[in-house]
């Protein structure tokens, strides 16, 4: 089969990976670090693997601006695994947690927690319940394409967050959070891994004596090696964070801001496009909009695909179009999308 | 850095991957199925991913000899995740489970279950407790290098097994088991994935309303797509099972039997070598032995490494030497090891 030219991939996740990272991963499937075998075939008990994991975590610590008062864990199971682990570790009988629910993912997190204990759901990150054992927010909702305000009144309870779809996509004071997590397959590499950062003080209050695979303290105690890690995803995380550091996070964040601004400006310039998120809540990473008719949307998606602009279909719950603009999506992809939108509107508006 | 020639890797896991599979995985990091992006960058909601997962499961069904009365799930978290999930799903208050403990991994599985409910540990897979809700065995112990007899009196309770280190390494009647699981990084591909096979009848008795990430029935209900799967590991599983089918499982199993027989014969031929496992319990996949002194063992490991025979160090709990002979390890590796052992014994015996 002839190689197809690389497309611009607007998928909400698993998302585009920087081409440099794909090159590095391919090389690591040959001879990793001169060991005569691939990164897939090296024991996690070796110095080589431990150094890889330590580097990935050090990179994250730098990028997130976290000190040694935070534990960083790289666990399997993605953010959905954390929907279960967080309440299982902190939501004891007789306690309750606050969950801010403003979309699909916040609601999903709250529903999982409600299978473990008592959950109060709130619409605004302000009306915190006194005595909550923790408070949970979702910083960005991929389906509706909305984001939480960056600044809101802090709860008295430790603040926890699902940041899967906007971690390291913009400047943020991560130290406001006692614990946060993100699946890696949007901004941090590939599927099969969750990054969890937690203040030691908060973590020390977690339950002990849980089955080890579900227990934060067991994973922390074992330096993240309680069980065989997903070394390939850790390697990808290391390459992606190396790439972010090389590019300069400030440059990446400015680029992300330009990408979103240009696309929203295009959507606002003609009534042909119907952006879905309220202006004040517009997501930086997931831009959602509709066209006048479903038939036009299908034509739009098909013609975009022909131009190498792929995975633009909105989530089935909402329909329409969704362009995800994570870190690895180049500005040229947004330029190509806008050029196509203009052509399409000229013919169809 | 110049590429090092590929070594013979006797690692107990993550283990060697067939070179053909590594080649295929590298290609899949370029343009996967003509989609203009890598396998890492394709949504799990696409037809392409669903077809990949369906093929991996169909291959497993063929190789394991299982019909549609078994559900096959591909979940993150490896076998250690299953140590937690199995009791969490089946070990209700007021019930108890039997765990056969004959080594490190059996003990670890039992200890995790004991954090969830009542566990009876047995030494022999015979003295089953009446009324157990399930009975659990570990078919092969990687650290001691021992295996369970293939045939033993079946319990009345549904039989469950950790088969991480010998799944598809030899013929087996998998239909004796109500549920079995294996981490993929020894015989089935790469780390970050567990294969779980379970009879529908048994599975239907599992708990509901658990947090979904921990709940077998939720994963089954979502066709294994409750959350973003580790697509790379599923792709590796598909390539490894394709490779097994091409090689012919019978041929692979005969090769495995020859590999183990030849190595044990070499160990039995001279008192210089001190095989660790009782003869009747010798593992097919993990051959453990000691040399007369710790200094000789260090010299053995260093010289083996120079000959490109790597990861032969025994587990730290036991010391000595361990040669793991999983499916992807070629017979030539065992021949090279034996040739080296003869040279080493000639000089040092």
TL;DR of this structure?
Chain A has 349 residues and is an alpha/beta fold. Chain A is 37% helix and 15% strand.
> Which series of helices and strands of chain A comes N to C?
EHHEHEHEEEEEEEHHHHEEHEEH
Portion in helices of chain A = 25-40%
> What kind of oligomer do you see?
homodimer
Query: Biggest sheet of chain A, strands in spatial order?
Result: 2-10-9-8-5-3-4
Number of alpha- plus pi-helical segments of chain A? 10
CATH superfamily of the largest domain in chain A: Type I PLP-dependent aspartate aminotransferase-like (Major domain)
The low-pLDDT segments of chain A are none
Name of the top-level CATH class of the largest domain in chain A: Alpha Beta
Q: What is the strand tally of chain A?
A: 14
- Termini distance of chain A? 38 Å
Main sheet of chain A?
7 strands, mixed
- Taken as a percent bin, the fraction of beta residues of chain A is 15-25%
Structure class of chain A: alpha/beta
CATH architecture of the largest domain in chain A: 3-Layer(aba) Sandwich
Please compute the radius of gyration of chain A using only Cα atoms: 21 Å
CATH topology of the largest domain in chain A: Aspartate Aminotransferase, domain 2
């Amino acid at each position: 089969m002839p190689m197809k030219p690389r497309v611009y991939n607007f998928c909400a996740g698993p998302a585009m990976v920087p081409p440099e990272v794909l090159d590095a991963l391919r090389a690591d499937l040959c001879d990793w670090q001169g060991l005569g075998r691939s990164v897939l075939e090296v024991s996690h008990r070796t110095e080589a693997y431990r150094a890889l994991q330590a580097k990935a975590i050090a990179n994250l610590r730098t990028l997130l601006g976290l000190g040694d008062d935070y534990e960083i864990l790289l666990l399997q199971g993605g953010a959905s695994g954390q929907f279960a682990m967080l309440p299982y570790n902190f939501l004891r009988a007789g306690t309750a947690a606050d969950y801010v629910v403003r979309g699909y993912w916040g609601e999903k997190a709250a529903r999982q927690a409600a299978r473990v204990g008592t959950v109060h759901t709130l619409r605004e990150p302000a009306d915190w319940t006194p005595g909550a054992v923790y408070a949970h927010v979702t910083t960005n909702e991929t389906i509706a394409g909305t984001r939480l305000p960056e600044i809101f009144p802090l709860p008295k309870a430790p603040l926890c967050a699902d940041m899967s779809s906007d971690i390291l996509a913009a400047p943020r004071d991560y130290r406001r959070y006692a614990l946060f997590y993100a699946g890696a397959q949007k901004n941090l590499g590939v599927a099969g891994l969750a990054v969890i950062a937690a203040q030691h003080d908060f973590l020390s209050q977690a339950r002990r004596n849980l089955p080890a695979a579900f227990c934060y303290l067991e994973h922390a105690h074992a330096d993240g090696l309680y069980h065989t890690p997903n070394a390939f995803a850790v390697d990808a995380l290391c390459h992606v964070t190396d790439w972010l550091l090389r590019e300069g996070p400030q440059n990446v964040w400015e680029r992300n801001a330009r990408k979103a601004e240009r696309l929203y400006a295009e959507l606002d310039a003609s009534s042909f496009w119907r952006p879905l998120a309220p202006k004040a809540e517009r997501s930086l990473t997931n831009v959602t909009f509709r066209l006048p008719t479903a038939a036009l949307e299908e034509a739009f998606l098909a013609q975009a695909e022909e131009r190498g602009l792929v995975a633009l279909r909105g989530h089935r719950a909402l329909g329409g179009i969704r362009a995800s603009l994570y870190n690895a999506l180049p500005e040229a992809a947004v330029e190509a999308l806008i050029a196509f939108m203009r052509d399409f509107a000229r013919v169809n508006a």
